[in-house]
Design goal:
By secondary structure, the protein is mainly beta. It is built from no helices and 11 strands. The strands form 2 sheets. Strands 2, 4, 5, 6, 9, 10 and 11 form a 7-stranded mixed sheet that branches. A 4-stranded antiparallel sheet has the order 1-3-8-7, with no helix packed on it. The radius of gyration is 14 Å and the shape is globular.
Length: about 130
Amino acid sequence: QVQLVESGGGLVQAGGSLRLSCEASGRTFNGYAMAWFRQAAGKEREVVAAISAIGSNTYKADYTDSVKGRFTAARDNSKNSLYLQMNRLKPDDTAVYYCAARPQSAATPHGHDYDYWGQGTQVTVSS
């Protein structure tokens, strides 16, 4: 059974940092595209970072404009894990953050393209 489990969310002041983790189990995701999405209360889900598998242990991350220069996604295949380092957090970053995976190498910004989802982790940034 495939599972994605996020952790690392919490409450942080504006300007602070958090590191989200997503641990996958049930299969390896080395050649899969993965992504981080978020959904704020009352808003639609949006992609934060989409990570394509472009070669053996080589990945390319694309970020939504609002997080460029502040967020960095990384993968550790040895741990079957995905990470999101979030720096200089803003109140607008408050949302539930989800990791997702799809059995193709190319990531997309569309949630419906992803087959596997975690349960989400809450990130709250106070002003």
